[in-house]
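worker-03 picked up job from queue 'complexes'. Input manifest follows; two sequence lines, order preserved.
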Amino acid sequence: MIPAVILVISSVVFLQFFVFYCRSIIAATSNQPLPQDVQDVTGIVDSPSPEDFPRVVQLLNLCPDRPEERGQLRAVSSYYKLLGLVRSTMALAIPSLKSWADHERSQCTYFAAVALGRRIAFSRDLLAQQMLP
Amino acid sequence: MPGPLQYAIWLLCTLLEAGVLVCAYRRQALQRYFILNLYMASEVLASVVRFEILQHYGLLSPSYAYFYYYSDALLTILLFFALSSLYSQVFGEMHAERYVQFGALFLLSGTAIFSFAVVQQSSGKLISHFVVELSQNLYFVGLVLTYILWGAILKLRETRARLIQIVLSLGIYFSLLAANYALRNLYPSLGYVFQSLNPLIGCFLPFAWAYAFLRTPEEARLAPSRLAVSPR
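worker-03 finished. Artifact:
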């Protein structure tokens, strides 16, 4: 009985901490402006569409990987999937959840776009280093 | 003996723990988060000694089992004090450090007495089972304490982004470990599966702390109210 109670409590608490943690990662980038080249490549100017996330991640995967960002991107990708699940299940019963999930998903897309900007800059630096005599 | 994958996860975890110390040193956060860094240094040391014992005596030897579980219990107690140091930081302006230290010692003693009482009723190998039981119970107490600390952060409008990330990652770590131990107790026949998840879960905490030290400056601020979930 006690292990079952611990399992339920820890699962609920885990979900809460996971959502807060992902939101703290996303919030750290929400004030950063999108570089012009990212806007050109992704077509995102002001507010990204919630559905753009997979496309931006595909673009991210085309750039050389930055190991320090890998874990955060994975966490945000999981959060995006979780939001998709909420949108297609719980939001059917509670309609206000749908607009909230869409807003969160567009924040995930913005996070990925900022990461794309960093990767493009990183690739440029790599190229510049290789061009040096 | 562990397989190549287990060795790889072990090595990764140890490197990440050492990485936390390097990141903290580079960002001049060694002193501010002293007990957290002491915990990570102890984890690295314990990993090295465990590896030495494993090589000399083997995985199934009593020496390895004793060292593994005793060091795990000591490290959990140290993590418990690391958590209380985070409480001290959050309640620092209220000069409540002494109360926090007293509360941490009280809870630690209470958990130890509870674990001893549980083990005394059901086990012949009192001390070794006590150590395992204590670790498991401390994970759950740690989870509850982290949740209370998070509540205090929201209530007191704590804005230090690095501190917030450290606390949230600790919450994820404790909840994963507590859930994993609960699953092991619920399904003892699948114990080896859940046990093999422990090192993977163990990689998360050093990774998240290293990220917090490296990428989140001490002066970065974040309104915790923005993190609270509120459907529009």
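worker-03 released lock.
The mean pLDDT of chain B is 87.
The helical segments of chain B are 4-26, 34-57, 62-90, 97-122, 126-156, 161-186, 191-215.
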